[in-house]
Amino acid sequence: MRNSSFLRASLALLALAMAATTAEAQLERGVVLDFSGRGSGGARNAVVRAASEKLDLQRSSDAEDAARNIGADLSQPAGIAAVAQDQGLTLVITGEVTGRGRRARTHIHVYDDQGNEVAYREAGRPTGRANQRRISAAAVEAIDQALGAVQQRRQEEALARQRAEEEDRRRMAALAAEHDARQAEEEEDEVPENALPLISAFIGIDGRNRNAEATFTSGGGRGYDLGLYPELSLRLESFPLGRSASAARGIYAQVDLAFALALSSQELQADGTPGPEIDTSAWRMLIQAGYQYPLDDDSFRIGALLGFGIESFTIGDNSVLASTRYSFLRLGVVGDARLYEQLLRLRVDFGYRIVFGVGDIADPAADPNALGSEASGGAFDVGASLGGHLAMGLAYGLRFGFTRYSFDFSGDAGDPEAVGSSFTDKGINLSVQIGYAY
Predict the structure, then answer these.
(1) Predicted TM-score (pTM) above 0.85
(2) According to the CATH classification, is domain 18-169 in 3.40.50?
């Protein structure tokens, strides 16, 4: 039992000693410099006694030596700050005694390590024990006030540093986010190798002809033969997901427009000579969408297209052929092969046209040259083209196409001899286009 009590007492004493050592280790470093004035030695001793309980006091001679070494003036705030920072001091205490006899006064100044006077106290004359105790008490108050000011300043500085660090982190995060966004933008803008063009726009001149023949069941027929005439042609192609790495990159759309330029017709007279010119106009439009699957790193593409189109051919008053306006649904297949990088590609098209409107040629009330009131049939087209584009985006296309419509007519016709006739309408198209691919 005694051994247990002794052990507990020893542990308690050890804990107290460790606490005292920790408390002592936590004391701020300080120095009390020499005071000036009559009786200043006694005043300084009283301050030193008080400061030794509050601070880890350093020798004043060390501070004075440091001042001489670094050329600091301890009578000035800047010199005090320089020595404090050189010696690792938190507080520097100076003072002076003014007056004489009973009117003598002791002045205590406490500076922090930045040379700021953070506390000041005034006490009586430095003679007598009672006065010495009063000076010590005044010094304790001044030191406590100074330590509080230093602690507050450190907290403010720590808070300011924390805010600055947070601001730096926010700024760095913003810069990193901006960099990532810019890099993502650059990567998005960067065209991957063998990417399909998002959009290609072309304009060009086409050469087109027309050969139409009507055969009557009663025998005979009529014909319309138009040589090569010019057209202004426009084409827009798009792989809207062409830069994607997924299979969706093959989604495709195409729009074609063409308008005849300076077009006219002439009807042959009975003697075989051409008659007067007849106003003639022609235009066509085709909108398609579908899919072209890229194979072998886009060396080949194969796909299918579905489209809607109109081909209009209007002829003024004549006794041979009625105006036509074919409206149709096109079902097509397409193949594309890379011959040399992206500079030269070969494309082949084939399409079947489901025709659901033919225009005045099946409307006797609108045109006396109508071949009947009802038409049945369809059409097909084939095409081949060479094209490509440069890295700068300049693109070109050389195209060939052939289209053939074939119909059988029934019902009333504008001419009784034309009842039950058959009709074919075919033409060749040559096109040269330039444009821009992005």
Answers:
(1) no
(2) yes
